[in-house]
Amino acid sequence: MIALLDCNNFYASCERVFRPDLIEKPVIVLSNNDGCVIARSDEVKKMGVKMGTPIFKIRDLIVKNNISVFSSNFALYGDISRRIMKILQNTVSDLEIYSIDEAFIDFIYKSDIEYESLNLVCKIMQWTGIPVSVGISTTKTLAKIANHFAKKISINNILFLDSEKIIDFYIKKIDVKDVWGIGYRYSNFLHDKGIFTAYDLIKRNDKWILDNMSINGLKTVYELRGIKCFELQTSELPKKNIRNSRTFSKDTNDYNKIKKAVSSFASKSAEKLRSQQCVASTIFVFINTNKYKSINENLKLNGKVNLKFSTNDTSVIISEALKILDEIYIPGYFYKQAGVIISDFSVVNQNQLGLFEDVSKKIKRDKLMGSLDYINSVMGNESIKLACEEFENGWRINQSNLSPAYTTRWNEILSVNI
DNA sequence: TCTGGGGTCCTAGGACCC
DNA sequence: TCTGGGGTCCTAGGACCC
């Protein structure tokens, strides 16, 4: 059996932990830059607000229904997530942390899985204040479906799909678009072909599925039929690429601002790269103009470089990224977004040294990067950084409704007046 | 006025080889 | 005029996930 544990309306629930006055009141959390809705409490879902709705389209609704609006506070959500995963680590036998608010698990005691699940739900609520749901079945894809219905119809937020009869009942009820692995393109295609539920889909033959939805589509169908194709991934795999990008708070034609932003993205990418003990050999930089404005200005510019010597040195990655920026930048346009992606990793101590690489210099640079990471880890993020990264709020995002970092910053800790 | 950010995997087609 | 068969590697783009 595989269980999927999923936090209910995770970001909204995190905000409520420190604002219990908002329990059972409508809450939304916005994307970076306060652009669109990325989390909704149940009350807001009932009002018909969809995931990703731009905030300016629901201004009236917010006022009318007195919806509490929060800017996204990833320091807080990340910390609460770590606490929940820690509880799981100490409670279950196998754990795959699938996302910030989801984990696939297997239980130690398998004789009464529903009881185990209930214990877990209660413990997480008591220790962190976050409501969670558990769906259990024979494959990951079915556990996902179990979880989907656990949130909707189960009284205790737990649903166990074990017998074939019960599985059949639910896969006849679920729209293919809500099946894990079937996105909006495939679901439109399937609807056109007269396939509306997961049950309709599994009745199609394998060849048809393979031809139209490729191998992953077929795996999904097998999983729906109760045949395991996706195993529990219990150890964390290193990332294959690292991306840092932002939409600017205001479109900008100021080259220096973009340069500082790109430097800063490159630096953050390098830091993440070092934290997984890797070096990278490909650097990709992109800048985009505003896609919602006139066609003429809808530019997507990008470039990349393959380095001769793989590196995780911040200054090298920044200077290479800036060279690319220099090449792709076209003056006279207003840019909306920029980003840096690094890829083609190898593990630090397995990396072949270049024949013409200056080894003594490299050792010095490695030490320097080590010190930089150490100071930032002890003194707090961005305590020191390179001079080319931004210092003022040149391109920083809008966060006008940001809640305090209650659990990760001493000066923002909750105070209680008695 | 105002539309997020960070990932993975697969496939078709082109370039190149003998 | 007629133009094979078999392979590898790389890349862009498309699909999906949270």
Provide a quick synopsis of the model.
With 418 residues, the chain is of the alpha+beta class. Helices cover 40% and strands 21% of the residues. A hairpin with a 6-residue loop joins strand 2 and strand 3.
Question: In terms of topology, how is this protein built?
Answer:
Blueprint: E1 2-7, H1 10-17, E2 27-30, E3 37-40, H2 42-46, H3 59-65, E4 68-70, H4 74-89, E5 94-99, E6 102-106, H5 113-128, E7 132-137, H6 140-153, E8 158-160, H7 164-173, H8 184-192, H9 198-202, H10 206-224, E9 241-252, H11 255-275, E10 278-289, E11 300-311, H12 314-328, E12 335-347, H13 359-379
Parallel strand pairs: 2-4, 7-8
Antiparallel strand pairs: 1-6, 1-7, 2-3, 5-6, 9-12, 10-11, 10-12
Helix pairs in contact: 4-5, 11-12
The structure holds a DNA duplex (18 and 18 nucleotides).
Would you mind describing this structure in some detail?
This protein has about 425 residues and is of the alpha+beta class. The chain folds into 3 domains: about 1-160, Reverse transcriptase/Diguanylate cyclase domain (Alpha-Beta Plaits); about 165-235, 5' to 3' exonuclease, C-terminal subdomain (DNA polymerase, domain 1); about 240-380, Dna Ligase, domain 1 (2-Layer Sandwich), CATH 3.30.1490. It is about 40% helix and about 20% strand. It is built from 13 helices and 12 strands. It has helices at about 10-15, 40-45, 60-65, 75-90, 115-130, 140-155, 165-175, 185-190, 200, 205-225, 255-275, 315-330, 360-380; strands at about 1-5, 25-30, 35-40, 70, 95-100, 100-105, 130-135, 160, 240-250, 280-290, 300-310, 335-345. The strands form 3 sheets. It has a 5-stranded mixed sheet. A hairpin with a 6-residue loop joins strand 2 (about 25-30) and strand 3 (about 35-40). The longest helix has 21 residues, at about 255-275. The protein is globular, with a radius of gyration of 24 Å. It starts with a strand and ends in a 39-residue tail after the last helix. The mean pLDDT is about 90. The chain binds a DNA duplex (18 and 18 nucleotides) through helix 10, strand 9 and strand 12.
